[in-house]
Every structure is written in C-alpha cells, then in structure tokens.
Design goal:
Layout: H1 5-8, H2 21-32, E1 39-44, H3 50-62, H4 76-83, E2 89-93, H5 100-110, E3 120-125, H6 132-143, E4 149-155, H7 163-166, E5 170-174, H8 179-192, E6 196-197, H9 199-209, H10 213-224, E7 229-230, H11 232-239, H12 244-255, H13 259-271, H14 276-295, H15 307-318, H16 322-340, H17 345-357, H18 366-385, E8 413-415, E9 428-429, H19 433-443, H20 445-450, E10 455-459, E11 462-466, H21 472-477, H22 480-494, E12 499-503, H23 514-527
Parallel strand pairs: 1-4, 1-5, 2-3, 3-4, 6-7, 11-12
Antiparallel strand pairs: 8-12, 9-10, 10-11
Helix pairs in contact: 5-6, 8-9, 9-10, 9-11, 10-11, 12-13, 12-14, 12-15, 13-17, 14-15, 14-16, 16-17, 18-23, 19-22
Length: 528
C-alpha cells in the first residue's frame, strides 16, 4: 500500500528534524545527562514537528542502545514502537477523547508498570480540546505521576490551556520552519524518490507551505502524481494558484491602469479552476514582495524566490509608486475578509481589481496628491513638447509674482507692518507671547498653526519672532491679511502698535509648491 510522503519521510531521530535546533538540542542534552522530565508540552503551528519529536522522545527514553541522545531505531523496543506492537507508548487524540471519563481511565491505567519498555509514555495530541473537567482530572497525575510515566502534550493553541497545566510542564515552542530548510528537505526527498524537482519549484512549495513541513510534503506528493519532472508550472497547477507569470502580468496591468486585461486574467484563472481565496492570498504576497523590493536594498533574505524572479520584482517595483503598492495591499486584505462571507467570490475579487487599477486613490493623503500633481505635470510637458498651447483661467488661480526674491539676512528678516511707536520698548523677552498666539487663533487659524512653537522678544523697538518654520516669513509678507491679524493680536495684548521682524535659519525663500511651478510654466509658454 502506498504511503504518503509526510509519513514515509517522518524524522526518526532528532538529527533528522529540520528547523527546530533549539528543541532537539535541549532534548538530546537531557537524555544524555539522564535528566528526563515527567511532563513535556510541545506547542507551535501545524506541521512544524511536534508529534514527530514526541514519538522520537518516546523511543529515546526507552531505547536499549541510545546514541548521543537519539534512539537507535534498531532494537526491539524502537521497532516495536514504530510498528505499534509495544503498547507502553500510547498516543491519544484529545479531540475525540476529551471527557472526564477518558482522563479517569488514563489515570487508572497509568498506575500499571510498563509491560516491555522502561517508561509508559502518553502522547496527548491537540490537548487544548480537553474539557475543563478533564483538565482538572489530569492535574494531580500530571504534577506527580508514577515514576514510570511520562506525559507529552502537543497543541497548536497554547492560549487555550489553563495556567495550572502550563506550570506543570516543561514547555518547548516550535517555530515555523524557514523556507530555506523546507526547500532543502524537499530536494532531499525528491532525490531519494528519483524525481526531478527544480529549485524554483521547491522554493514555491516552501512559500505556499507557510512554515509547515507536512503541508510542503503533501503538496510535493500531489506534484509527484503529475509527473517525474516538477517545475513551477506543475506546482502552480497542483496547488491551484496563479503562478508567478500571472502575478507579474497582473501587477503590470495595475501599473498601466488596464482594467480590461486585469479582469480578463481573473476570468481566465477562474475558468481554469484557480481558487479565488488562494489567488487573493498570492496577489497579497506578490504586492508585499513589491513593497519590500521598493523600500529595502538587500532583499535576498526577505523574499524567497529565484534570482530571476528577484530581478523581475525589482524592475516591476520601479514602475509602481509606493503609495499605489500599499493601497493595493490594503484593498486585497479587505477583499480577503469579504471573500470568506461572499456568495460569489469572483465578484469580490473583480471589485478589488477595479479599485487597484483605478488612477484615483481613496485615502487622500499628501503623497497621493503629490502623485496626482506629478501626473498632471507629465501630461503638460508632453503637450508643451508637441507645441500645444495651454490656457489657464486667471480668475480661478492666484497670480504668481514674477519678481526676483529679495536677498534676506541670515539671522533677521524684517517686514514693516505697523507704524513706529511713540516710546521705545526696552529690549528683552516678550513674556505675553502665548496670549498673542491665543488671540491670533481666533482670527487666523492657518497662521496660528505655522507659528505654533514660536517665541518672541523685543529688539530695537520691534517684536522679533523666532521660528523654525521656514515658510513663516513668506506667509506673512506675501499676504497682507495675515500680517494685519498678527499686528492686531499684538496690539490687543500690548495696547500699542509694533513693527514685526522674523528670525529664521533660512537664507533662501520657501520653495514654490508644485501647483505654482506648473502655473508659471504654463504662463511662460503662453507669453512666448
């Protein structure tokens, strides 16, 4: 009878366990030093080696000829445990044996000495499924079991275990197995099975398995059924996912705002029985890789793929803005949630495609507005090169002064806003400046925001304002209404009119906004 790969290639020694050196090394040291605990708790995500290590440990504590903490797998005890003839190692499924009566039977049975082995070992899988009463019935035996009994508890949901159980066990946390370790194991198994497995295909299986070796071997088993030569296309077909070629095509359509091609691609994949949930997950991971390629220089350790695919990711990331990539990830994450409760999953993904390919983004962030202005500038530049004259309504836009900016002193920029005072004010700190800002808040909120954090002092009969905001000088000088409100606020606090000066660290006027630059470019073209 054919045996599944994950069963056939289950590790038989601690040295065969991939990706859990912190667990296997500790267990081997305990066995070598004869410091065996009475209760162990193995926790971690599915397919990471919990049950395998539990079975290896049950053999190692009973092995007649242990080797460096590993079972020999050759003695009668090891062979008996493997084939099930030694009844001193009992594996219990807590999902179907979760009642108080089941645990009571276990307690009574534990009092009997082992028939053949040195220890009676109880492996309780998915222990979090036990009822509260069953946990309470297990407590005393778990804390002080007979000398010949060892408990090994395994669970994927450690948070469901009572603290009283956790405190009585020696806990080992199994991590998700790295894609590199899964890839190496898959290639080893394929070689032993006389099947050709390409490295990109093994890496794709490792990525789909998401840290679970059992899932990876199960998918490899499906691939074996499709032929003796396995590449990325075979893996994509066996797993029911889009494949990297389709993913890159999709991101290209998003970059070009090509609704039609993107929707056709979704329909084609759907007709080929591609699972919509898996497709949405693959698209999310693809745009995640684009995000990493866009922001990180050394991405080899962050993305598991072939060198060719890595180069394609870097090139594709250059054609997409970071704001667009982040928006696509957000849309796909929300779509993944909607798909779970949708009556028609395809429609949900098609709606997401429309949002992703749209030129207008919804959050209205400053980055998105800047992207839209840059797009307008590109269109204007194309029209200017082609000799097309562009007219702009002067009533709708504020005229931009073409006068050359005045050179400003490095430490002081003065703007006369009020008449000279009758009596000079002694130099010193303007102690009531906070009151001026509070008055200004009622008259001019934008100016108040710019002057937030500023200080003031009296110098040579003027109010000297110190601010780290380089736009304050131009904001006051270029708009008389702002300066009037500031003068009015100072007058209401001091009871007299004062000249105003601005002290900044800037030696150049503030740079014009993209809209102002665009307007100047259009006016210059029309004047010529």
């Amino acid at each position: 009878m054919y045996q599944a790969l994950y069963r056939k290639w289950r590790p038989s020694t601690f040295d065969d366990v991939y990706g859990q050196p912190h667990v296997t090394k500790t267990l081997k040291n305990e066995l070598e030093n004869n410091r065996i605990s009475h209760a162990y708790l193995f926790t971690g995500s599915r397919g990471t080696g919990k049950t395998s290590c539990a079975k290896i440990l049950s053999k190692a504590v009973n092995c007649l000829n242990p080797k460096n903490g590993n079972p020999c797998n050759e003695c009668a005890i090891c062979k008996g445990i493997d084939n099930g003839s030694v009844l001193d190692v009992i594996e219990i499924d807590a999902a179907s044996n979760n009642g108080v009566d089941n645990i009571r039977d276990l307690r009574e049975e534990a009092n009997f000495t082992p028939a053949n082995a040195k220890y009676r070992v109880y492996i309780i899988d998915e222990v979090h499924m036990l009822s509260i009463g069953a946990f309470n019935a297990l407590l005393k035996t778990l804390e002080e079991p007979p000398a010949h009994v060892i408990f090994i508890l395994a669970t994927t949901e450690i948070h469901k275990l009572p603290a009283t159980i956790l405190s009585r066990c020696q806990r080992f946390d199994f991590k998700r197995i790295s894609p590199e370790d899964i890839t190496a194991r898959l290639q080893y198994v394929a070689e032993k099975e006389n099947v050709s497995l390409s490295e990109p295909a093994a890496a794709l299986i490792a990525r789909i398995a998401d840290g679970g070796m059992r899932d990876a071997l199960s998918l490899l088993d499906r691939c074996f059924a499709m032929g003796s030569s396995i590449d990325e296309n075979v893996v994509s077909s066996a797993a029911g996912i889009a494949g990297t070629v389709h993913l890159f095509s999709f991101s290209e359509y998003v970059a070009n705002n090509d609704f039609t091609s993107a929707l056709k691609l979704v329909s084609m994949l759907h007709n080929e029985s591609c699972d919509i949930d898996s497709l949405c997950t693959e698209l999310t991971l693809h745009f995640r890789n684009l995000m990493v390629a866009k922001t990180v220089k050394e991405i080899g350790s962050l993305i598991v793929c072939s060198k060719e695919e890595l180069d394609n990711l870097i090139k594709r990331a250059e054609s997409l803005k970071l704001s667009k990539i982040l928006e696509c990830i957000s849309i796909l994450e929300q779509t993944s949630k909607n798909i779970k409760n949708a009556s028609n999953k395809k429609i949900q993904l098609e709606a997401a495609v429309i949002k992703m390919c749209g030129p207008t983004l919804s959050s209205g962030s400053s980055q998105e507005l800047e992207d839209r202005i840059n797009a307008i500038e590109e269109k204007v530049n194309e029209l200017l090169k082609n000799g097309v004259k562009i007219s702009a309504s002067k009533e709708e836009t504020k005229p931009v002064s073409e006068e050359k900016p005045k050179e400003n002193p490095k430490s002081e920029k003065t703007e006369p806003v009020s008449a000279p005072n009758d009596e000079p004010v002694p130099d010193g700190e303007f102690r009531n400046w906070s009151e001026v800002l509070e008055k200004l808040k009622t008259y001019d909120i934008p100016l108040f925001g710019i002057m937030s954090g500023s200080t003031a002092s009296f110098k040579n009969g003027k109010v000297m304002i110190s601010s780290s905001n380089p736009t304050l000088f131009d904001f006051i000088c270029n708009d008389s209404s702002h300066s009037k409100f500031l003068s009015k606020s100072i007058y209401e606090v001091l009871g007299r009119k004062m000249k105003i000066a601005v002290s900044t660290n800037e030696s150049k006027p503030a740079e014009k906004s993209p809209l102002e630059k665009l307007k100047i470019k259009i006016d210059n073209f029309n004047n010529n």
